[in-house]
């Protein structure tokens, strides 16, 4: 897992997501990375509008694209650019969050090593699923240039496509940073729950040592809650922008992809490849909302193992504290990020994509 995180940190620095490098288990910033990120930031913000405009023109000029739908690529790429621009401009907030996250990660890892606790299987599976969706989304985004634009027979179009598609991976990598930040918080809460259960159930630990362990767990739980709120505060506007971008992307791509899949002159491989990209990104976004649900669940997990008859003053105070500090991860204070909201968003995407496709059927006289 550590090597996976380091590999994606290198890619994140390459695409100007952060100026901090992971070195020896800690994040460090150098003058070279600061200058590099500043130059890449300015270059992307300057060149991307023209690159997106050319890509939108190429897509709208495709033989299978109906004339009345040719404005949709311009809408989609405009939304993409706005989300990318905001993500790049707000890099300083992500960098500041990395240092807070580093402290809590080191604290949790130190406590897990001391007590011999292991990560639960659900968190491990989620990490590898998120890694797979990120890897597939990034690689397929770059391969798309060679699969769909090889017919253009122009180095200018090829370079333009690479710039656009590498920049689009910024949107996916941003959600990975958000996911990993909350994933570490969820791992910390899970450790607190495991250790608390063991301390309460143990008969070999004296009351003085139990009190010390409870105070330590209390402090760690408080730090985790503080870090989770900081993550939600700093990433909230970015996740709102990315959710809007994903919403527009899913509606337009869902309709355009359906039109593309009904054409006979295009290869079946390209249709399958495009649909896999679409569904992988949908599942990738679902994992972001699912980890928010998991953090809230672990933060106030019921403590049925604590018998009221033998409850100490420290344990009683801790349970009162925990039950009164519910963690509500609201995106910019507007709505909670959870599985229910994701399903509602998917329902809205299906409705709007269906309406757009019905418009296509009406215009071509098929309805």
Automatic annotation (TrEMBL):
Identification of the protein by name: Gustatory receptor
Example GO biological process: signal transduction
Any one of the GO CC terms: plasma membrane
Function as written in the Swiss-Prot or TrEMBL entry: Gustatory receptor which mediates acceptance or avoidance behavior, depending on its substrates.
Membrane-crossing segments per the record: 35-53, 73-93, 127-150, 162-186
Family: Belongs to the insect chemoreceptor superfamily. Gustatory receptor (GR) family.
Topology within the bilayer: Multi-pass membrane protein
Source species taxonomy: Eukaryota, Metazoa, Ecdysozoa, Arthropoda, Hexapoda
InterPro entries: 7TM_chemorcpt
Subcellular location as annotated: Cell membrane
Keywords attached to this entry: Cell membrane, Membrane, Receptor, Transducer, Transmembrane, Transmembrane helix
């Amino acid at each position: 897992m550590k090597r996976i995180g380091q590999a994606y940190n290198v890619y994140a620095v390459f695409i100007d997501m952060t100026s901090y490098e992971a070195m020896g288990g800690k994040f460090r910033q150098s003058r070279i990375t600061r200058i590099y990120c500043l130059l890449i930031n300015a270059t992307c913000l300057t060149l991307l509008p023209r690159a997106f405009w050319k890509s939108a023109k190429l897509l709208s000029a495709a033989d299978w694209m109906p004339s009345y739908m040719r404005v949709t690529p311009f809408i989609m790429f405009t939304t993409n650019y706005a989300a990318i621009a905001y993500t790049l401009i707000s890099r300083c907030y992500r960098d500041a969050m990395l240092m807070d996250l580093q402290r809590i990660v080191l604290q949790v890892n130190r406590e897990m090593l001391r007590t011999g606790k292991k990560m639960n299987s659900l968190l491990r599976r989620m990490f590898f699923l998120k890694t797979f969706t990120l890897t597939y989304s990034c690689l397929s985004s770059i391969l798309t240039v060679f699969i769909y634009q090889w017919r253009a027979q122009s180095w200018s179009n090829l370079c333009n496509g690479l710039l656009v598609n590498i920049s689009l991976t910024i949107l996916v990598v941003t959600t990975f940073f958000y996911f990993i930040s909350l994933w570490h918080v969820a791992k910390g809460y899970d450790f607190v729950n495991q250790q608390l259960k063991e301390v309460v159930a143990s008969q070999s630990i004296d009351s003085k040592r139990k009190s010390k362990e409870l105070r330590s767990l209390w402090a760690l739980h408080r730090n985790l809650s503080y870090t989770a709120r900081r993550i939600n505060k700093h990433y909230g506007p970015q996740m709102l922008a990315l959710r809007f971008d994903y919403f527009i992307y899913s509606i337009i791509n869902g309709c355009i992809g359906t039109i593309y899949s009904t054409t006979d002159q295009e290869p079946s491989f390209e249709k399958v490849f495009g649909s896999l990209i679409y569904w992988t990104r949908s599942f990738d976004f679902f994992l972001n909302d699912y980890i928010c649900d998991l953090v809230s669940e672990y933060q106030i997990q019921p403590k049925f193992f604590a018998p009221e008859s033998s409850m100490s003053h420290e344990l009683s105070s801790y349970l009162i504290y925990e039950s009164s500090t519910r963690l509500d991860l609201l995106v910019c204070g507007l709505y909670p990020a959870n599985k229910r909201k994701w399903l509602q968003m998917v329902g809205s995407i299906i409705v709007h994509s269906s309406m757009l496709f019905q418009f296509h059927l009406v215009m071509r006289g098929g309805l």
